[in-house]
Amino acid sequence: MASYEVLMEDGESICTVLVNGYNTTTVNYSNLFLQEGEGDTIIGFDTEWSYAQYEKETEVVLLKFCNRASCLVVKIKDNSIYLYENLGRFFCNKAFVFAGVHMQKDLEKLRKQLGFEVPNFVDLSQLASKVFNRPLLGACGVRELANEVLLDQEIKPGVFNALSESNLSTGVNFSRNLIEDATADAYAAYKIAKTLLK
């Protein structure tokens, strides 16, 4: 299991764990976040979609989770039943609130592709547009929304969303920059949630 220390712009040091193989499928995600996050149950959540080879529809290829101390980046593999069972238990754990932008689309895709149900979630796009009475915030991505909601800091746009489809759909290892960008996306969702759910 590969882990990285990633320093965020606000000074927080996040331990990012990359789940990219069979030997990391037995990690208990719930315990990881409860222990490392000292009981913090808000989980920033983000996904990456890509076209699978010979498919007409996009599918989820990467899941990103983060709380104040830990980040988990999970590469979805077609043949990992243990990974799916573990993720399914994590998503169903009602102790956690999964918070991200445009959650309805992500949840629909996860339900259709992997059969996951996520009972406890907050769509930060919708919540921010209501809290600030600015409907256009509902169209923002996670980093744009962070720049609007977290006025005291700026989260720089990254290149993670511009990854080529081949990098996400094959077994290519992720560079340090890509791990940092994945962490920044999930951490931004976490910080937005902590601000809006006060």
Q: Would you mind describing this structure in some detail?
A:
It is a single chain. The chain is α/β, with parallel strands linked by helices. The chain has a single domain (2-196), classed as Ribonuclease H-like superfamily/Ribonuclease H (Nucleotidyltransferase, domain 5, 2-Layer Sandwich). It has helices at residues 29-36, 81-92, 103-114, 124-131, 142-149, 165-169, 176-196; strands at 2-7, 13-19, 42-51, 58-66, 70-75, 97-100, 121-123. A hairpin with a 3-residue loop joins strand 4 and strand 5 (70-75). Mean pLDDT is 80; it is low at 156-172. One of its GO terms (biological process) is nucleobase-containing compound metabolic process. GO terms for molecular function: 3'-5' exonuclease activity; nucleic acid binding.
Low-pLDDT residue intervals, each spanning 5 or more residues: 156-172
CATH superfamily: Ribonuclease H-like superfamily/Ribonuclease H
Number of DSSP helical runs: 7
Instruction: Give the second-level CATH assignment, the architecture.
Output: 2-Layer Sandwich
- Total domain count: 1
InterPro entries: 3'-5'_exonuclease_dom (IPR002562), 3-5_Exonuclease_domain (IPR051132), RNaseH-like_sf (IPR012337), RNaseH_sf (IPR036397)
Domain 3'-5' exonuclease: 34-196
Keywords: Hydrolase, Nuclease
Organism: Acer negundo (Box elder)
Short synopsis of the structure:
It comes from Acer negundo (Box elder). This protein has helices at about 30-35, 80-90, 105-115, 125-130, 140-150, 165-170, 175-195; strands spanning about 1-5, 15-20, 40-50, 60-65, 70-75, 95-100, 120-125.
